[in-house]
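Practice record 12: protein with adenosine-5'-diphosphate.
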Amino acid sequence: MSEVTVKEVKKYFNQVKALDGVDMKIQDGEFVVLLGPSGCGKTTLLRCISGLETVTSGEIRFDQKNVTHLPPKDRNLAMVFQSYAVWPHMKVKENIKYPMRIKKFSKEEIDKRAKETAELLNITELMDRYPAQLSGGQRQRVAVARAIVLEPAALLMDEPLSNLDALLRVTMRSELKKLQQRIQTTTVYVTHDQVEAMTMGDRIAVMRDGKILQFGKAEEIYQRPKNVFIAGFIGSPQMNFLEMTVKREEGRAELVSKGLSILCEEDKVKGLEKANLDKVILGIRPENILLSPENGCVPIKGSVYFTERLGGETIVHVSTESKRFVVKVSGDALFNENETLRIYLNVKKTRLFDPETEEAIG
Ligand SMILES: Nc1ncnc2c1ncn2[C@@H]1O[C@H](COP(=O)(O)OP(=O)(O)O)[C@@H](O)[C@H]1O
Ligand SMILES: [Mg+2]
């Protein structure tokens, strides 16, 4: 198990810039998720860490050791690319022992480690079965057992659940997460699925265009996204964005758009003063817009445009003079189309962005 350090890593495929200066430090035993849209460089970063791809420039370290120019076999890593990456013609115990046989471990060592790993992953009673006789979850555990039996510095996974159906994927998420907590192996996990990232990662690195835009805990990225892209990428339904005019005078700041006026709290006033903008993008998540007034909420008149009743929650699209807001309410709520109503923006839970740079200002 190791700390993994990626330093100013760039990777070009001819003219294509796949990684554009990536810096990250993954702590020993940590579960880090690389999250981002297709083509942003997640797989390339994982492959650079593994050595399957050579970096164009920059450095990769495992603890103090510089591994930048080592081939994959000398990096002592384990990779799980697909959930069913076990050999169907071998019993579970043979699957687990195989990597050690390749490395010519002694028979005693092989038996000892296979037994310990099986105990760790709770598959001791499955050792004499073939993969076809296992459930999806059990098969995944065998795949992980085989991956970690050589005690790798880190475990790398590239969208391991993407081929599974929705229901199994949900089960496997928590299964894999629990597994990692038990084995405490430093893990780098690639996904484009934000729910997977939010539920599994100790920390999440959000990537775009070969760069890491934000690296932090799930709640931090959800509550305090660094820019409009991250704010929009994380969360479903998406955060509402609205461009507003800033009116500032003597330590006060008001945000104005048609039918809506928000007096800013102190912390936001400071951010606005520093940024010195005439316009600002207000971001508010659908669950932070309410249908009844509460302390600190600002009302805006609207009418129901469209309702999505999902059973446990209801998504209401509300047209206002300013924009159409998406509102999430818990429970199954019934609305008539064009019904007029007021919605209430929970101002404390808003985020402000610079319209030019799209960076957060508070
Ligand atoms: N072997 C390759 N040759 C040329 N271009 C590549 C190669 N691998 C990846 N790329 C390009 O690098 C960028 C990042 O790709 P990738 O790391 O696979 O993204 P992701 O895994 O986030 O979907 C993309 O533009 C992709 O087309
Ligand atoms: Mg990929």
